[in-house]
Specification:
Layout lengths: L20 E6 L2 E5 L5 E8 L9 E6 L8 E3 L14 E7 L12 E7 L4 E8 L11 E2 L5 E8 L2 E8 L7 E2 L6 E2 L5 E4 L33 E6 L5 E6 H8 L9 E9 L5 E9 L9 E8 L9 E5 L1 H4 L4 E5 L5 E6 L8 E6 L6 E2 L11 E2 L5 E4 L3 H13 L9 E8 L4 E9 L14 E2 L5 E6 L6 E6 L7
Antiparallel strand pairs: 1-2, 3-4, 3-8, 4-31, 5-6, 6-7, 7-8, 9-10, 10-11, 11-12, 13-14, 14-15, 15-16, 17-18, 18-19, 19-20, 21-22, 22-23, 23-24, 25-26, 26-27, 27-28, 29-30, 30-31
């Protein structure tokens, strides 16, 4: 396929390619438009060829206006490469030094890796600093999904890259689109702000939506049909609480959903749950990883606890499906006084065990289909607080404000830093996470970095790895 000229129906709120435009939309709230150029050339700039262990490139817009923006892909478990792997989906943000507010816009863009062009497809009010606008592919190169805030509600939007059909708003959110492109899942994206900002959408000041204590029967995991656009509540928070038992609703806590992910076969869902307590209660947030069937009807939602709150009460984070769709990979601490390790469990919660007992976990881990190679990053605080002794024992140090993109060979019990990358030295809500994500053939890794101080999308070529 090839891109056509911009067509009627694609929403472009600004025509200028210079500077930011703003207008007052409510007292104290300005709408900031993101009028980057509709199309610009992109260079694959080689990144540190003298020191990187593998070929690495930075995707750098050549247009002067486009260079002023911040670019990220979505998440470590969502492939930003199109099904043919020719195109890359990214979010272009007007700023990243503060949280977006209601009315601010960002651009959903596609990079043609063959032609070296970046095209703006859509402008959205539904974005955040960690996942951008959650741009992700459907079942083919023609179909891209994102989220937007329309009539005050966060919903998925289907885009047609050919321009033959206009953008279509669906009725539910798309935290993740199933690999087969048939449906999307996710909690209400405004409610995600209740437990952590950066992953949902901006809310109108003074109208933030929060749930009462307990487990709501009206909110939970939504399943949206990508063909007709209809949505339904696949599993309510009350359903999850029933599965977890009485303890999920006690103590005045409130149950929320967070990370949602469909497996590679599009037949099972991994859902992270959090129970939060009132400020000042002295109780820590509880977390679970639950899997359920991605059925067409509510009867097909049998649940299993893949990783329990007892394990996640110790240091651990970022579960992810194994490519086989039957195992969960997660950072976890198997022993109360032990280190955090890369661990695995079945979707049913059986056979929990570390992938390696000697290599410490960190960041956002994912495996290749052979279970040999694992890629991940690390948070600055993890590197400083937990990993520095491990690397020092190996005579390895890293530049200030940079973290390693870790490539772990589980078969050999060894690891290599693909490269180190500037993440601006930021922890907390404004942080820049690399979020390394495999390509569809597992020969490349896409990640975020700030090699020159601005957020950019980068690609590492791992084709030379044995068995890849």
């Amino acid at each position: 396929m090839s891109y056509s000229a911009p067509v009627a129906g694609l929403r472009h709120f600004a025509r200028s390619s210079a500077g930011l435009l703003a207008r007052l939309i409510a007292p104290g709230v300005h709408e900031v438009c993101c009028p980057g150029p509709v199309e610009s050339a992109v260079a694959l700039r080689r990144y540190r060829p003298e020191s990187a262990a593998f070929p690495v490139w930075t995707l750098e817009p050549l247009d002067a206006a486009a260079q002023t923006y911040q670019y990220i892909h979505t998440f470590f478990d969502i492939c930003p490469f199109s099904p043919s792997q020719r195109y890359l989906a990214v979010t272009r943000m007007p700023y990243a030094d503060r949280q977006p507010v209601y009315g601010d816009t960002a651009d959903v863009c596609v990079i043609d890796l063959e032609n070296g062009t970046l095209r703006r497809l859509y402008t959205t009010k539904g974005w955040a600093l960690q996942l951008g606008a959650q741009a992700q592919w459907g079942a083919d190169d023609r179909t891209l999904y994102t989220n937007d805030v329309i009539d005050g509600k966060a919903v998925a939007v289907r885009l047609d890259l050919t321009g033959e059909t206009p953008p279509r708003a669906l009725q539910g959110p798309a935290y993740h689109v199933a690999p087969d492109g048939r449906f999307a899942i996710g909690p209400a994206l405004d409610l995600m702000n209740a437990t952590q900002i950066g992953y949902g959408v901006p809310e109108r000041p003074g109208h933030e939506r929060r749930l009462p204590s307990g487990a709501s029967a009206d909110e939970g995991l939504w399943r949206t049909d990508c063909t007709d656009g209809g949505t339904r509540l696949l599993a309510s928070l009350a359903d999850f609480a029933d599965h977890l038992g009485e303890s999920a609703g006690d103590g005045g806590g409130t149950l929320y959903l967070f990370h949602s992910k469909v497996n590679a076969a599009s037949d099972r869902i991994m859902q992270v749950l959090r129970r939060v307590y009132p400020e000042g209660s002295g109780r820590k947030t509880q977390r679970w990883v639950v899997t359920l069937e991605a059925g067409e009807d509510t009867a097909g939602t049998r649940m299993a606890t893949a990783v329990g709150s007892d394990i996640l009460a110790r240091r651990g984070h970022h579960p992810n499906w194994h490519p086989d769709g039957r195992q969960i990979i997660v950072n976890a601490t198997p022993l109360p006084d032990g280190p955090m390790l890369f661990c695995r469990a079945t979707a049913a919660g059986d056979d929990f065990a570390p992938l390696s007992e000697t290599i410490p976990g960190s960041g956002h881990p994912s495996l290749d289909p052979t279970s040999r190679y694992l890629v991940t990053d690390t948070y600055p605080f993890e590197l400083q607080r937990y990993l520095t002794p491990y690397f020092q024992q190996r005579g390895i140090g890293f530049p200030a404000n940079e973290v390693p993109l870790r490539l772990v060979d589980l078969a050999a019990g060894a690891e290599t830093a693909i490269c180190t990358v500037n993440t601006l030295g930021i922890d907390g809500p404004l942080r820049l996470d690399p979020h390394p994500a495999w390509s569809r053939d597992f020969k490349r890794v896409c990640f975020n970095g700030a090699p020159d101080g601005r957020r950019r999308v980068m690609i590492a070529d791992l084709d030379s790895l044995p068995g890849v």
